[in-house]
Amino acid sequence: MQRSPGTLSYLAAVVLLAMYFSCAQPVHSEELSETGAFFITADAAVLMDARTGQILYEKNARQKRPPASTTKIMTALLALEGGDLQQIVTVSPNAASTGEASLDLRPGEKLTLEELIYGAMLESGNDACVAIAEHISGTEENFVLLMNQKAKMIGAEDTSFKNSNGLPAAGHCTTARDLAVITRYALRNDIFRKVVSTRGRAVGGEKCRYLSNTNRLLWSYAWADGVKTGTTGEAGNCLVASATKDGRQLISVVLHSDDRWLDSVKLMEFGFENFNLVQAVGRGEPIARVTVKEGTEKEVKAVAGAGIDAVVPKNGRERPEKAVEIKKDVIAPVQKGQYLGRVTILVKGEVIGSADLVADRSVERENALRVFLKKAGGYFK
């Protein structure tokens, strides 16, 4: 069981780090270097804004690496999406025999699916993951197929899972970017957010077990609210973390790190101190005007059907840009909310989001005789 850091030296380092970033000048992520604003010990790292999906910092972000127990993020997600949390799961001999980090489950033992999810995410139980996989899909092999399918569906392009828990296996790999993408998707699930932010919990079975979350940031970093540690010899010390401050949630990923806790705090503080979340387009905001032919009015406003947020540096060097595709004209009648085009928001050439452009009001068609006379008049000119 891992305990929260209690040494004065560690806490002092965190305090000094926060003081440093509060005084530091804003720095672009692309300008960071190992001799620049801060040093990341991890071999690969990513900082992502949870709302927009924008990557604010990256280091070897697409380098394929073993993810260790951060694999369990996908396992928990599929369990939440495909299972009944209160359904009883009977632990198989195969699941009970799974080695290394475990809940010490016993063959025939019965726990709820919810308890197994907590066991997988807090205590990093490898046996709990196999029990989940067998319950959802019959076999772990079938469950892994679902894991890989889900990864591709949500945009994790360089991920290949071979098991449900992250134990070393040939070809079991992902990237820092993909883990951030998977985590961003998972954090949309209310129950997932609750699980990964839980410090400790008791679960049943044949014996009562008290689970303590292996994520030390939940104790040492005030804004932390998830997500999952991972540790193997090959993967090294890994951490996918999330933190929320002033309504903004960030996701950091560090793989093969010499100090996953401090690396993650550095990334979070960099993101909070140097970037702002802005509304690039407001819902209902007029973007363009479209001519209406044969209508009782000559034009309608094309307004955004949804709002789009973007993250920009506080130093103001980059601002959101709008790319608009719009119909030149439409023929009446026009219905309020009718599709007229699309607006896309870009920051530094990267697409952040898009929204439909729709008519702000309805326009009826002119009287048929008047339309005819107008056309006839134009014809005889």
Strand order of the largest sheet: 14-16-17-12-11-15
The figure for the number of domains is: 2
Q: In angstroms, what is the radius of gyration? A: 26 Å
Number of strands: 17
Query: Could you say which structural class the secondary elements and strand pairing correspond to?
Result: alpha+beta
Mean pLDDT: 89
The biggest beta sheet, please?
Answer: 6 strands, mixed
Helical proportion?
Answer: 25-40%
CATH-derived topology of the largest domain: Beta-lactamase
- Beta-strand percentage range: 25-35%
Q: Which word captures the global form?
A: elongated
The CATH architecture category of the largest domain equals: 3-Layer(aba) Sandwich
Order of helices and strands: HEEHEHEHHHHHEEHEEEHEEEEEEEEH
Span of the ends, CA to CA: 89 Å
With helices defined by DSSP (H or I, 4 residues minimum), what is the helix count? Answer: 11
CATH superfamily of the largest domain: DD-peptidase/beta-lactamase superfamily
CATH class of the largest domain: Alpha Beta
Low-confidence regions: 1-36
Chain-wise SSE layout:
Elements: H1 8-23, E1 44-49, E2 55-59, H2 72-82, E3 88-90, H3 93-96, E4 110-112, H4 113-121, H5 126-137, H6 140-153, H7 176-186, H8 190-196, E5 200-203, E6 209-212, H9 217-220, E7 224-232, E8 236-245, E9 248-257, H10 260-274, E10 275-281, E11 286-293, E12 299-304, E13 308-313, E14 321-326, E15 329-331, E16 339-347, E17 350-359, H11 368-380
Parallel strand pairs: 11-15
Antiparallel strand pairs: 1-2, 1-9, 3-4, 5-6, 7-8, 8-9, 10-13, 11-12, 12-17, 14-16, 16-17
Family: Belongs to the peptidase S11 family.
Keywords: Carboxypeptidase, Cell shape, Cell wall biogenesis/degradation, Hydrolase, Peptidoglycan synthesis, Protease, Signal
GO molecular function: serine-type D-Ala-D-Ala carboxypeptidase activity
